[in-house]
Request: fold
Amino acid sequence: MSKIINWGIIGLGKIAHKFAEDLQLVEDANLLAVASRDIENAKSFAKKFSANQFYSSYKALVENPNVDVVYIATPHALHYEHTLLCLNANKAVLCEKAFAMNAAEVKEMIRTAKARNVFLMEALWTRFIPGTLKTLALIKEGSIGKIHSVEADFGFIGDTDPEKRLFNKRLGGGALFDIGIYPVFLSILILGAPKYINAHATMAATGVDAEVKITFAYESG
Ligand SMILES: NC(=O)c1ccc[n+]([C@@H]2O[C@H](COP(=O)([O-])OP(=O)(O)OC[C@H]3O[C@@H](n4cnc5c(N)ncnc54)[C@H](OP(=O)(O)O)[C@@H]3O)[C@@H](O)[C@H]2O)c1
Reply:
């Protein structure tokens, strides 16, 4: 029998609920502990998903010696801080997208994970969905032929409340960080890193991009 992996979750918002629901379908996973800035939220979340322990501080959760891996479900602007909090406590990390706010933060996260020999991963689910796997397989077996271009879109009408994470600059708001990363990732997965990037954004009053269009250009043409 495989070892049971004890999960902790920090930041008990929308996606944390979905994640906890799905974790119940994973045979070797046990939701052991959850942490929220609000103890009542932590308590009701723990009750709903049968987690043994709940905390009012993220630090207290990462100090629990029985937690093997932490799922970070806080807004993007806090991913760097919370990932380092977990890694420095030698906890494996599954961090929500967008991984961090810039390349320097990501490099430091990776450096810390390597230095401590601890698992670190961005929760980019579209890398693993059947549609992506099938696309990659079709490309590999040559049945599509040579790929000349990729067109990818993702959009929805979001909650424009300036305090909520989608349009709040302080929390890392904006279209690119929230869902623009998906078409960017798909393009890089299929065509590799581009030589030139041309981007045009429509900015919202809060100073974040409400919409962004990006063209990647490759030396190969
Ligand atoms: N993979 C996906 O499909 C997917 C889908 C949706 C979202 N996400 C990602 O998951 C992350 C969270 O998104 P969400 O939609 O779940 O957001 P959300 O509902 O706003 O939840 C974020 C949680 O982070 C915690 N938090 C800690 N400091 C905070 C602060 N200063 N301001 C606001 N919240 C703070 C809060 O939990 P406590 O109060 O409990 O501490 C809050 O409930 C984002 O990075 C997003 O990109 C991924």
Remarks:
- The chain has a mean pLDDT of 97.
